[in-house]
Write a structure and sequence with these properties.
elongated; alpha+beta; 29 helices
Length: 897
């Protein structure tokens, strides 16, 4: 604010100061108007036309025929008498603007002050009293219109409320357009102005005004979008408005912080849209991988990405998503085109294969559904045709293929009926063939073969030959009994595998014969005796393997005990052997691992860490998917486990480095009183006002001495005004303290302590078998961490540089614990991965022993493998079972005989 207005601004209320500041802006815009009584007034009149803000350039401007107005004098009602006493104000060089406010009151701006005025040259009726606004209605503005915008206005617009005149030295179109844009306060008007005057003097102010409008619209658009996000239809156009307005504002004012912040907020919303799109795309991919419905998620992802790019075509995440979504969409479209082409050429299976990856989307994509339906109909119709021709095998295949392509109640029921018919046909064919073969055996008096070829048929087929079986039963029982006697005589006592097989065959003959003639006590007795023979043999074999050193035969022994119990279930010696050797079996026939950890450090910083690792690994291994038996280092076992995990703590230490420096600062040591400059200024104002009061009083005394009433009235008003100022300044002076407190600042030093803390934890392990051979190892699992801590000590609370006591010495134990935990997690994961590979190592050992001719060692390894892996149908488990069956005549528990 210019110096000449400084005093008034201190005395005026804030609203008046604001108006004065606006007046100063107009003064800066228009310059000092060059007009006087002898020079015609030139002004820019701003008003609202039919199409918004407008202006005319006026020359020779007069108000009621005069280049003057009258001050309102602070009155609210003016009559003829008071009007004549109002001070006249010439529209001279000090006047910058004249306007009517929304209430119709005329306000004149000169310098920084705005004051109420009324037109000159008015006539009053008798006893007429009017307000300043009513008097302003009688103002008639005349002058010559020398230009207008928009063009076409040729007459002086009426001086209505809100109309404003800005006085200028000469007509100025650029200034008029600037003032018009200011009045319009619209984006379009400011853009029009800047487009027409890109290098004008008011360019910076125009840019700031336009940028403010753009940012307001951008903020409103962002707020509107955010409030719509929770609805089913977010208003993306509002977010686009926010982005466009932000970019326009940044183009005008590149360094504008508000524009940068709004741009960040818009970008944050775009990131959220991209995150939603990415989540939808991921959901689609999961549905695709899981062969479930979810095609709609690809469309949703595409829509979200498109919306993001509608808002900002250069949004990088949106472009990346659009590319990925387009690629996924292209894959689906390519598959559908290929499938449709295959259907057209009647290659239905190839068509289904073409869209096979996307078949789960058939209910969501009609094109996929059409391909699937066409292939389904093709196979279903072929199935119907085969069924009509009683080609039940072909019918089953076609119906099964149709049901595989598209499972429906129709396909399920027809497939079930076709399978029933096919099974019936198959059973009849097989039964007929078996009867023919049985008849041949019977003619040769080979009654055992004649009967068993029928007895070994499946249930459905055996039911068709039950009459023939009944007819052969007597001859079969006699022949089986005789054959069993011969086999028993030839192969007892059991001396080897051939004898075992012979006795087992005799047992099977007697078992079947006895089931056909349950009342035959001789058959029953002979069956009991041969069962005892087999059970005794298996118990003897079990004891032989249990006697092997270090439990090396306990796996086979346990299988033999199981076999013995099948033939004689209630034997005390079997229970005794199991009880006596169960602890050995639990170690040697399972995936047993002993965990031992050794500390290779000085143990000063790692006391107990090795034991913690040992317990953690043991606990971690117990949670694996494998049936692992964990033996801790302190546990005693009758024999050594199959494996031993030997771990080593290689390095375990914290390192602390401390740096200390002294830093200079200042603090408030005390306070002192100093003169208050604001009180001094107020006091000077008060003294000046007092002198003016004295002068006014002397003028009044002089007027009274001469007896001039008019001068007395003016002088009396001057005294009253001066008295008011004195009282006002006195009140202000009383409200201000005469002195203020000032800080006494002194130097001091505080301590900055920098603590560098680092931790190293390095562990390793190896897994060895019962022979001490290393079969897996990880030499080092190393974890390190480093962190710097800053501690400010001895900081005074009164520090004047805003330094605060901060930081605390680090908890070294906790820091070390955190690194230990990370190392432990990594180690356990590595150990688990190695242990999960042990069954493969065991299988490799079995195969190697087989190659070396070690039959019993191979059997023990295969048994260990079977006990170490889940009970599932795998080629490796079948390999182990087959070996035991062929080499030891044993069926693994749960396997078919």
């Amino acid at each position: 604010m210019p110096q000449r207005f400084k005093f008034h601004a201190q005395l005026c209320p804030p609203s008046f100061v604001k108006r004065a500041a606006i007046a100063l802006i107009f003064t800066a815009l228009t310059g000092i108007a060059v007009h006087s009584k002898d020079v015609p007034l030139t002004a820019i009149e701003l008003f609202d036309g039919p199409n918004g803000a407008a202006f005319v350039q006026l020359s020779g401007l007069l108000i009621n025929g005069k280049a003057e107005v009258r001050s309102c004098g602070g009155t609210t009602e003016i009559n003829k008498s008071t009007y004549g006493k109002l001070a006249k104000i010439s529209l001279n060089t000090s006047v910058t603007a004249l306007e009517r406010d929304a209430n119709g009151v005329m306000n004149l701006t000169r310098g920084s002050a705005a004051e109420c005025v009324v037109p000159s040259n008015l006539k009053f009726d008798k006893d007429e009293s009017l307000t300043p606004a009513q008097l302003a209605d009688r103002a008639i503005v005349t002058g010559q219109v020398v230009g207008s915008s928009p063009a076409g206005t040729t007459t002086v617009p009426a001086f209505k409320p809100t109309v404003k005149m800005v006085f200028v030295p000469a007509p100025d179109v650029e200034l008029g357009e600037f003032l018009r844009a200011t009045r319009a306060h619209s984006v379009a008007q400011w853009q029009d102005y800047l487009g027409r005057y890109p290098k004008a003097a008011h360019n910076d102010l125009a840019k700031q005004s336009l940028a403010a409008l753009l940012l307001k619209q951008g903020e409103d658009g962002l707020a509107s979008y955010r409030s719509s996000v929770s609805t089913s239809s977010p208003i993306y156009s509002d977010l686009k408005t926010a982005r466009v307005r932000t970019d326009q504002a940044r183009e005008l004012l590149p360094a504008n912080e508000e524009a940068a912040k709004l741009r960040e907020n818009v970008h944050a919303e775009l990131v959220l849209i991209a995150d939603k799109s990415r989540a939808e795309l991921q959901t689609y991919k999961q549905a695709l991988a899981g062969h479930t419905a979810g095609y709609v998620h690809l469309a949703t992802a595409r829509q979200l990405a498109d919306h993001a790019l509608e808002v900002d075509p250069h949004f990088e995440q949106g472009l990346t998503l659009q590319t990925g979504i387009a690629a996924e969409g292209k894959r689906v479209d390519t598959a559908m085109r290929s499938g449709e082409s295959m259907v057209s050429s009647q290659h239905y299976d190839a068509a289904v294969t073409a869209v096979g990856e996307f078949r789960a989307f058939a209910d969501e994509e009609p094109r996929i559904a059409a391909i699937v339906d066409a292939a389904y109909k093709y196979h279903f119709d072929r199935g119907k045709a085969s069924a009509a021709d009683q080609k039940w095998h072909d019918a089953v295949e076609e119906y099964r293929e149709a049901d595989k392509i598209k499972s429906t109640s129709e396909s399920a029921s027809t497939l079930k009926q076709a399978e029933k018919e096919f099974q019936s046909s198959t059973n009849q064919t097989a039964a007929t063939a078996a009867l023919q073969q049985s008849s041949v055996f019977e003619q040769d008096k080979r009654y055992i073969e004649a009967y068993e070829v029928l007895a070994d048929l499946p249930d459905g087929q055996r039911a068709l030959v039950k009459d023939q079986m009944q007819a052969l039963q007597a001859n079969y029982v006699a022949s089986a009994s005789d054959e069993a006697k011969k086999l028993k005589d030839a192969h007892t006592p059991i001396q080897g595998r051939a004898d075992e097989i012979g006795v087992l065959k005799a047992y099977d003959y007697l078992r079947r014969a006895s089931s056909l003639q349950p009342d035959d006590q001789d058959l029953k007795l002979r069956l009991d005796l041969i069962s005892q023979t087999l059970s005794d043999y298996y118990v003897a074999q079990a004891k032989r393997y249990l006697d092997k050193p270090l439990g090396s035969g306990v796996g086979l022994a346990w299988l033999y005990l199981n076999e013995a119990q099948q033939y004689k279930s209630n034997r005390d010696d079997i229970r005794d052997e199991r009880t006596k050797n169960s602890s050995i079996h639990d170690v040697r026939s399972t995936l047993s691992i002993k965990v031992v950890f050794r500390d290779q450090t000085s143990r000063r910083d790692s006391s107990g860490f090795a034991e913690q690792l040992s317990d953690a690994i043991a606990t971690g291994l117990e949670t694996t998917n494998l049936p692992v038996r964990i033996i801790r280092s302190a546990d005693a076992t009758p024999v050594e486990p199959n494996f031993k995990l030997i771990g080593d703590v290689l390095e375990h230490r914290p390192v602390t480095k401390v740096g200390v420096e002294s830093i200079e600062s200042e603090y408030r040591a005390a306070e002192r009183e100093i003169p208050n400059e604001e009180w001094n200024r107020a006091n000077r104002d008060y003294e000046t006002a007092s002198l003016e009061l004295q002068k006014a009083q002397k003028l009044l005394e002089g007027a009274q001495a001469h007896g001039k009433k008019k001068e007395m009235s003016v002088a009396n008003t001057g005294v009253e005004d001066a008295q008011k100022k004195v009282e006002e300044y006195h009140r202000k002076l009383d409200s201000i303290p005469r002195t203020t407190l000032s800080d006494v600042v002194k130097p001091y030093s505080y301590t900055r302590k920098t603590i560098d803390l680092s931790v190293v934890v390095d562990v390793g392990f190896r897994i060895v078998d019962s022979n001490g051979n290393t079969i897996a190892m990880t030499p080092s699992v190393k974890n390190t961490a480093q962190k710097q801590f800053v501690v400010l000590e001895n900081v005074k609370p009164e520090d004047t540089k805003n330094v605060k006591q901060a930081g605390a010495p680090p908890d070294e134990a906790q820091f070390l614990t955190d690194v230990e935990i990370a190392a432990r997690i990594a180690l356990i994961q590595d150990v688990k991965e190695k242990v999960e590979l042990l069954p493969t190592k065991i299988l490799d050992q079995a195969r190697k022993r087989l190659m070396d001719g070690d039959t019993e060692g191979t059997a023990e390894a295969y048994i260990l493998y079977l006990n170490s892996t889940p009970d599932a149908q795998t080629a490796e488990r079948e390999e182990a079972k087959k070996f035991l069956r062929e080499q030891f005549n044993m069926n693994w528990p749960g396997s078919a005989a």
